[in-house]
Write a structure and sequence with these properties.
Helix content is 31%, strand content 23%. The chain is α+β, with helices and mostly antiparallel strands. Among the domains are: 138 residues, Dipeptide-binding Protein, domain 1 (Alpha-Beta Complex); 211 residues, Dipeptide-binding Protein, domain 3 (Roll). Strand 4 and strand 5 form a beta hairpin.
Amino acid sequence: MPPSRLLSALAAALLAAVLHQPVHAGKADDTLRMPADQVLPDIDPYFNNELLGSIIGQQVWDTLVTRDPATGQFKGQLATAWRVIDDTTVEFDLRQGVKFHNGQPFTADDVVYTINFIANPASGVTNQRNVNWLKGAEKIDDFKVRLKFKAPFPPYLEYLAMPIVIHPHAYYAKEGRKGQNVKPVGSGPYRITRYEPGKIIVMERNTAYYGGTPKSNAKIGKIEISFVPDVQTQLAGLMTGSADLITTTVPKDMVDNIATNPALQVFTVPTMRVNFLQFNVLDATASPALKDVRVRKAVMHAIDREAIAKATMGTGYTLLGAFCYRDQFGCTDKGVPTYEYNPQKAKDLLKEAGHANGVDVVLNAFLAREAAEMIQGYLAKVGIKATLVYEQYPAVREKQRKGTSGITFASWGSYSINDVSALLPVYFGMEGDDTARDKDIATPINRANTTMDPAARAKDYAQALQLIGERALVYPMYSVGRNFPATKELNFGRQTSDRVQFYEMSWR
């Protein structure tokens, strides 16, 4: 029995043993307790790529605009109105009366400082794709600013609504990134009152938070996030009452057990997150055989992606026709080849490539271990021996950026940005995570990122997606439907992605 299956069986036994024990939800002391399996390298949203970091970032910091979860429309957050001056300039009217968690009033100085800081490559923002389109910002008056782009950037509102948060300029200028990581200060609906890296993060509701935005309705008084690396331990905590919500990926068999407990619930939400296999074809690759397109195609034909999605999630997923999420602008599978599950075709391709007796590859992974082990098993059946190297995301990312990964079982949520510019340039734009470095693909992608003509953008993205498919540089598997086990007393509110919004939640 594979290790994950054994652990699942043990966890199922534990869940069954405590199935009818009373669950003591956090409603009693108005504290939502959530274990997490990620350790943030830095709590500042600009210096981590982790899902947990993005979740916390949206609670603690504010953006200029936000997307209303009820309508999908952009609304003002720290800004109240905006207008396009020209293709590379947008002017924002700022909200008055806002204060940061340390009492500092919010003004145009905070926006100008933050934008100019992150736009400077020397600042070292982890995900440069989120900020490298910005040229800078200038102050018009205390509550009016202009943002300047390096070139036309059509999806600017998408980025301003999600990853680009605003820091307090006086505090950040004095304390710097280090100080912000020790004692974080934002303006959001929750403020961090305790932070022990790798152990616990405590957030309390900001009772002085301003009204009039989708983030203004926070109701739960306190959020406690503790580091618990093992999902079985997390679920045991949920069953015995020491946890109220699980956001870690939970194997389907465990979810099924949880659903039988009348004191618990499982909330399922379709997400923009896509799971895929990324092939490293660079000189330093850990799997030189991947340089042969026939081997890459053999890998794809060897894997039954739908069986994996059903086994690990059950519902909520969609199979991908191209390397993008179906609702994103620019996403199309027209003309993109598909690689159906066909083990015999995989064997034939390996033989044609000179590997009739099999081939060794490295499979790097940082998520959904059960799914990674299933991929490993499918590959073994056609003669591809995959050595699974399972590590935390930062370690896998480092190998990708050094070009020393092999096949990476990866996941990307596009920061919930509804535009393929949040996905394609990351992996095919000649940037850090690009393990193909294919100029034919990067050229139309980068061109599409800087034109305001929607038709021209769509045409360029379609060309890139077709080339990615034809050259078999990524195997797009499925979008992720996330299951969130929780106490029955928790009302999830309007959740639209795996970046759960605590300010939407309440107690029943």
